[in-house]
Structures are given as structure tokens and as C-alpha cells.
Amino acid sequence: MMTEKPLLRVVAKLLIPLILLFALYVQFHGDFGPGGGFQAGVIFAVAFILYSLIYGVRVARQAIPASATRSMLAFGVLIYGGTGVVTMLMGGEFLDYNVLAATVHGGQHLGVFLVEFGVGTTVAGAMITIFYTFSGHVNDNLPFRKHNHVVTPSKKGDGH
Amino acid sequence: MSGAEMTSDPWLILLVIVPLLAAPVCVLLRSATGAWSVATAVAWSVFAISLKLLDTVMDQGVVRYRIGGWDAPWGIEYRLDSVGVFVVLIVSAIAAVILPYAKRSVEKEIRKDRIYLFYAMLLLCLTGLLGITVTGDAFNLFVFLEISSLSSYVLISLGTDRRALTAAFRYLIMGTLGATFYIIGVGLLYQTTGTLNIADLKTIMPAVIDTRTVHAALAFLTVGISLKLALFPLHMWLPNAYTFAPGAVTAFLASTATKVSAYILLRIIFTLFGDVDLFASFPLQPILITMALAAMFLASLSAIWQENVKRMMAYSSIAQIGYIVLGIAMATETGLTGGIIHMFNHALIKGSAFMAIGAVVFSTGAVTLTQMEGIGKRMPYTMAAFVIAGLGLIGVPLTPGFISKWQLVTAAMELNMWPLAALILLSSLLAVIYVWRVFEVAYLRPAPEGAPAAQEVPLSMLLPIWVMVLAALYFGSNATFTLNLAHTAALQLMGGL
């Protein structure tokens, strides 16, 4: 933790909201210009990873627990696949966006938007999950619970 | 394209998206029992869907689906013919039988807090394997290959033994090499032909076959898939992966994953390059026959020397892959029928064998021959199932192994390859030796002192084992249905799509 580095903390505090905002821009502007779900997901996750690097993984885990990032992983896939199922229910083929709205243009627009949102959710969840997994020996598999037990090396020294 | 051709059969896409969407549901459920229930319901629905598709394919020949409403060859087309539906049937049937078995076995072998992730991975693996068989797009096939491979690395690494991690890592390296080779091959084909649709590639192929790019593509594709198939000498990842994976995973992967890889090999040789006479212009037949024979003999010999029964069966799997490839290499109607039917028969036999071993491990922890002394009396039903599976590996009449070997021997004779026919029979004798080793230890040696008198597994495990064994015995004594299916598939491959 970098409690003694005020410059880093202040800059991070300024940057993180901007990074999140930029991620949302890349996500929602992806169908008009460069960008899309994957890039947005990575940028979104970067904000949390930067937060963990500056303030510590323990604090970051309180902000967004591992159980939440796992749910993000799963939800993203469901949003993507679910869009396909909805198009099927509306009489089209799997992922045929034309049927989603009154016009073909509107349907394609909405379909790509939903699918990219699914991609963004999963990618952000995956990046943070990978970061958490490598950054500490915490069992994230346990069902919803209040505190994760962080395993730290023994503080008793080397036996003296 | 005519109007009739463009109709989409929604069951085809459901076959893939039902397990695909059930996997994240398992992750969200976060409960072992919940995830198992979802996975089992999905496996049974998928089996029902594949029966429905079998009916349609028998009726109409080819079933298609246009993803996103885009016509082939621009969009991704799913396309199921009699070859694919046979493999879909194998994969979904095995999954439907193994899931009820998996419940208790997984509870014992995998940490409780990881079980829901285990079932999510199993469903993804199922998605990948089914996706490979239904897709008509070479790149989409790569995506499904990666889905099934990545999930199987995770499944293997969940084994109780720490060596499962190195086994999974080794498989990861080899599997990734295989998948990379495959995608390089597809890339080269795309650069030459400008299409990724397999049916489209097939029609363009005769015009471009004499280019070095396509030759390189063929080499990359076959070597890449041979790695995934564990064709000798590219099999080194397999024994450890099967030995250290959880019992249910070994049974599932051994009976499905290599079969699906064999299916890809069939698709490459007989569909992608179907309009080109590969066997005339390349020494494909001698190469494949040599590899197959080497697998049959060397892997069987290795199996004989194994102490660990799971590893013994893993080597036996490599040998059995040899028989499948031998059938493919003969490239005649009878040979292909033999190779294709052996995919089904071996799935049943090896599924039964690995499920029985998994039950022994579940109940006693025994996995080596020494530990299994006298196990026949302590676990009579499980070991009887293993012995029947063993007879199937040898190819004794009334077991499905006999049907496959009969076809292969007939095919060799039709081609006047008498030495080959003799070698097929000779290699079966090697199977007699390793199956006898287990039989001798299990039935003819006394149980160690202090061993409990009876240690039979719970009914929820015993029942699936016997369902599989009885299915094997049924299809061994009455092979009309499977032979017809395999024969139709062989005809379709020989005559093009």
C-alpha cells in the first residue's frame, strides 16, 4: 500500500473516474466509432486495477468483491446469449438483430448494443477476476459471505 | 440457393446454446446441488434434442441453421449431416449417462466450494464438443475447439492429486499447439480461397490444390488435429491427463473428446479436401496406417506394463484411437464404416471402463493393481462391469469391440491388405494381456487382510455404469442400428456432402 505517496493517491483519485467514464464512452460509442465491448471492458477493469495498486487489494475487494466480478462474468455471457434467444422468440434466427426493432437499422443498432454490453461486462469481470486471483491467496469460491480471509505469510519471523 | 435449403432448424442452434447458457447459470447459482441439477437437466435435454435431430437428418439428409439470419457462405452456417449427427449422439448420450454418476464422485473428489464451477466447466466442454460437430464454418470450429479444450484443461486440473496440475499444464501446451496449427491452416486456406465456410472451401479446393500454400495448410490442419486426437506419436499429453483427472472427467473426456477430434480429421480429409483425391496425390494412406499401427501396438504394449489401472486404460485409449484412424486411412466404404462405428463403440466401452475404475477409486481409493487385489469380491457389480468393458476392448463377440474389428478386418481384406488384417487381430491379443492382468488381480488374488468385505458404490453411481455396459452389450449383439448409421455416414463422406 502506498499510504505515504500522496501524489500517486491524489492523481489516481482524479484519474479513476475519468477512466471509468472513458470506458463507458468506448462501450456506448463503439457502434459509431472505434471501440466496443472488449476494449471498454478492459479500460473499465483498468480503473479497478489502478485502484488496487494504489490503495491495496484489500480495499479494492471491499469496493468490488470477487463474488461480484464472478457474477459479472456470468451475466455478460447471459446478456449476449439472451439477446440471441430473444431474437429467436421474436421470430428471427439466433442473433438476427433485424427483428429486435421496427426497422432493420434500429434492430441492428439495438442488437449490437446489447451484445457488446454483454462482452464488456464479461471482459471487465474477467480482467478483475484474473487480477484478484494473482494478487492474493483468497478463496473466492465460497458462497456469499462477509469477509474473505486473506492468507498472509507468518509474521513470527524465522523462529528466533 | 433454393428456398428449401435456406430453412433453419431451431433445434440445431438449441443443441449448442442450451449448454452454453446453462454454464453461466451454474456460476450464478453458486450451489453444488443446484449446478448439478442444471447440468443434468441440460445433458438430458441435449440428448433429447440430438435424438430429434437424428430423426430429422435421417428424414431430410442435411439440417442447417443460419446464425443471425446471414446466408452461407457469408454468415456462419450450422450444418448437420449423418456423420455429424452420429457424433452428436455419442457426445450427448455419454454426457446424459455420466452426469448422474458424477454427483457422488465429484462430491468426493472435488472441494465443495469448487463444485459449481466444475459443472459450469463441464457444460462449456459439452458446448464446445457439440459446437464442433454442428458447425459448417472452419473458423467457428476453431472457436468451439478452444471452448472445449480450455474447459477440459480446467476439468483435468481439478483432480485430487497435485500432479493433475502438471498434467493439465502439459495438455494445455500441447493442446494450444494443436489449436494454433489448426488456425494457421485455416488462415492459409482463407488467404487462398477467401472463404471460411467448409462446404464453400470444398468446392473451391480443386482449383487451388496445387499451390504450396494449400499444401502447407493441409499439413498444419492434419498435424494440429492429430495432436488433439492424441494420434501416435503426438499422444504424450494423454496418459497423465487421463490418469490424474477426476474420475467422472476421465470417463467423459475419454469417450467424447478424442471422438470429436477424429470427427474433425474426417471433415478435413473427406469434406474440406473432399473434391480432391488426397489419397492419390499425397502419401496420406501409408502415413496414417503407420501411425495407427504404431499406436495399436506400442500403446497396447505400454498399457501392459502399467501399474496404475487408470493409466493402463489411458494407453489403451491411444491404441483404440489407432483403430479409428486405421479405418479412416483405409478410405473405403467398409473401412470408414469401421472407423466411424468404432468411435461410438469405443465411447461406450471406454466410458464403462473409466466409470468402473472411478467407482473403485471412489469406494476404496485403490487405483494400482496391487491396491486392487481381491477387489472382485468386494465390489462384484462394479468389477463385472469393468470385465465386460475389458472384453469389449479385446473385441470378444457380443461386445461392440467385435463389431468394429470385424468391419476393420473385412475392410483390410477387401483391399487385399492381408498383413494388416493379421495385425489387427494380433493387436487384440495385447489387449487380452492387460485386461487379464486386472482380472487376475481382482478375482484370483485374495483381498489384503483387514479389507472390508463389501464396498460396493451407491446405486446412483452403479446404475449409470450398468446403463452404459448394457448399452454396450446391446450394440454389440445387435449392431444393425449403429452399423446403418455408420454406413450412411461413410457413404456421405465418400460421395461428398
From TrEMBL, chain A:
<keyword id="KW-0812">Transmembrane</keyword>
<dbReference type="GO" id="GO:0005886">
    <property type="term" value="C:plasma membrane"/>
</dbReference>
<comment type="similarity">
    <text>Belongs to the CPA3 antiporters (TC 2.A.63) subunit B family.</text>
</comment>
<feature type="transmembrane region" description="Helical">
    <location>
        <begin position="7"/>
        <end position="26"/>
    </location>
</feature>
<feature type="transmembrane region" description="Helical">
    <location>
        <begin position="38"/>
        <end position="60"/>
    </location>
</feature>
<feature type="transmembrane region" description="Helical">
    <location>
        <begin position="110"/>
        <end position="134"/>
    </location>
</feature>
<dbReference type="Pfam" id="PF04039">
    <property type="entry name" value="MnhB"/>
</dbReference>
<keyword id="KW-1133">Transmembrane helix</keyword>
<feature type="domain" description="Na+/H+ antiporter MnhB subunit-related protein">
    <location>
        <begin position="8"/>
        <end position="129"/>
    </location>
</feature>
<dbReference type="InterPro" id="IPR050622">
    <property type="entry name" value="CPA3_antiporter_subunitB"/>
</dbReference>
<protein>
    <submittedName>
        <fullName>Cation:proton antiporter</fullName>
    </submittedName>
</protein>
<feature type="transmembrane region" description="Helical">
    <location>
        <begin position="72"/>
        <end position="90"/>
    </location>
</feature>
<keyword id="KW-0472">Membrane</keyword>
<dbReference type="InterPro" id="IPR007182">
    <property type="entry name" value="MnhB"/>
</dbReference>
<keyword id="KW-1003">Cell membrane</keyword>
UniProtKB/TrEMBL annotation, chain B:
<protein>
    <submittedName>
        <fullName>Cation:proton antiporter</fullName>
    </submittedName>
</protein>
<keyword id="KW-1133">Transmembrane helix</keyword>
<feature type="transmembrane region" description="Helical">
    <location>
        <begin position="36"/>
        <end position="54"/>
    </location>
</feature>
<feature type="transmembrane region" description="Helical">
    <location>
        <begin position="83"/>
        <end position="102"/>
    </location>
</feature>
<keyword id="KW-1003">Cell membrane</keyword>
<feature type="transmembrane region" description="Helical">
    <location>
        <begin position="12"/>
        <end position="29"/>
    </location>
</feature>
<comment type="similarity">
    <text>Belongs to the CPA3 antiporters (TC 2.A.63) subunit D family.</text>
</comment>
<feature type="transmembrane region" description="Helical">
    <location>
        <begin position="351"/>
        <end position="369"/>
    </location>
</feature>
<feature type="transmembrane region" description="Helical">
    <location>
        <begin position="457"/>
        <end position="475"/>
    </location>
</feature>
<feature type="transmembrane region" description="Helical">
    <location>
        <begin position="213"/>
        <end position="232"/>
    </location>
</feature>
<dbReference type="Pfam" id="PF00361">
    <property type="entry name" value="Proton_antipo_M"/>
</dbReference>
<feature type="transmembrane region" description="Helical">
    <location>
        <begin position="171"/>
        <end position="193"/>
    </location>
</feature>
<feature type="transmembrane region" description="Helical">
    <location>
        <begin position="138"/>
        <end position="159"/>
    </location>
</feature>
<dbReference type="InterPro" id="IPR001750">
    <property type="entry name" value="ND/Mrp_TM"/>
</dbReference>
<feature type="domain" description="NADH:quinone oxidoreductase/Mrp antiporter transmembrane">
    <location>
        <begin position="137"/>
        <end position="430"/>
    </location>
</feature>
<feature type="transmembrane region" description="Helical">
    <location>
        <begin position="381"/>
        <end position="403"/>
    </location>
</feature>
<feature type="transmembrane region" description="Helical">
    <location>
        <begin position="286"/>
        <end position="305"/>
    </location>
</feature>
<feature type="transmembrane region" description="Helical">
    <location>
        <begin position="415"/>
        <end position="436"/>
    </location>
</feature>
<keyword id="KW-0472">Membrane</keyword>
<keyword id="KW-0812">Transmembrane</keyword>
<feature type="transmembrane region" description="Helical">
    <location>
        <begin position="244"/>
        <end position="266"/>
    </location>
</feature>
<dbReference type="InterPro" id="IPR050586">
    <property type="entry name" value="CPA3_Na-H_Antiporter_D"/>
</dbReference>
